[in-house]
Amino acid sequence: MKKWKLVFLLLLVTMAVRIREKGLRMTFLLNRAVKDDSQKASLLLDSLLPKELLVELKTGQLRVAYEYFDMSLLYADIAGFTAYAAQVDAEDVMRMLIKLFAAFDAATAELGVYKVHTIGDAYVVVNQPKSGKQSKDDIYVNLRSVIEMGLRMLVAIKLNAETDKGSDTKLGMRIGIHVGNFVAGVIGLRALRFDMWGPDVLAAN
Q1: How far is CA 97 from CA 5, 85, 93, in A?
Q2: Predicted pLDDT of residue 34
Q3: Is the separation of the CB atoms in 180 and 73 below 8 Å?
Q4: b or e along 7-39 (b: 16 or more beta carbons within 10 Å of the residue's beta carbon)?
Q5: CA distances for 82 relative to 17, 21, 57, 85, angstroms
Q6: Tell me, what's the pLDDT at 4?
Q7: Rounded to the nearest 5°, which phi and psi values hold at 108?
């Protein structure tokens, strides 16, 4: 009888150890999944807002509006896009835009400029927003980065034309660059969006 009690006790201990190990393993996997999701959410947020505003958002100090001076703005859209879209399937249009804008996104990351938004075939960029007055050196460096962004766009659209044989329409880029001032802020509560207003924004566009 004592022998059976001992066997039964050993079985209980073994089961308890296995249950504990399984629980620890599940806890580890859940924590890792939460950490991965948190990192993905952080990366997504980093891409949505300028660095300066991200800091204030995370500390609960986000203001209604910010003034920016001597900023380099770039507005670009695809010349020939309407005719192109009329000749090819909508899926092919999306495929082209995804490929082209991915090249643009890579250039913004490399050059340290900020993508404000895309609207249809339009792509809007400014130098990394930093409120307050800027030095002449900063203005010059920022303008060079935005001009380089425009040049990268021209290269990307040329490469696209060489590989995309689905349409007779030759695509190009219309690019406007301007240095000026604007007021900007974060619009929305759930779908956050950084947007800017002012006469110089209209001039760039």
Answers
A1: 72, 11, 6
A2: 43
A3: yes
A4: eeeeeeeeeeeeeeeeeeeeeeeeeeeeeeeee
A5: 67, 61, 39, 5
A6: 59
A7: -65, -40
CB 172 within 8 A of CB 80: yes
For residue 105, the model assigns a pLDDT of 93
DSSP classification of residue 114 = E
CA 146 to CA 90: how far, in whole Å?
31
pLDDT tops 90 at residue 110: yes
Tell me the C-alpha distance between 104 and 159, whole Å: 12
pTM of the complete model:
0.73
Q: Can you tell me the distance from the alpha carbon of 89 to that of 26, in angstroms, rounded to the nearest whole number?
A: 47
Neighbours of 83 (CB within 10 A): 13
Cα-flanking dihedrals φ and ψ of residue 177, to 5°? -125, 135
In three-state secondary structure terms, 59 is coil
Predicted pLDDT at 148:
96
Task: Report the sign of the C-alpha dihedral through residues 104, 106, 110, 112, in that order.
Answer: positive
* Phi and psi at residue 181, to the nearest 5°: -110, 155
DSSP state of 160: H
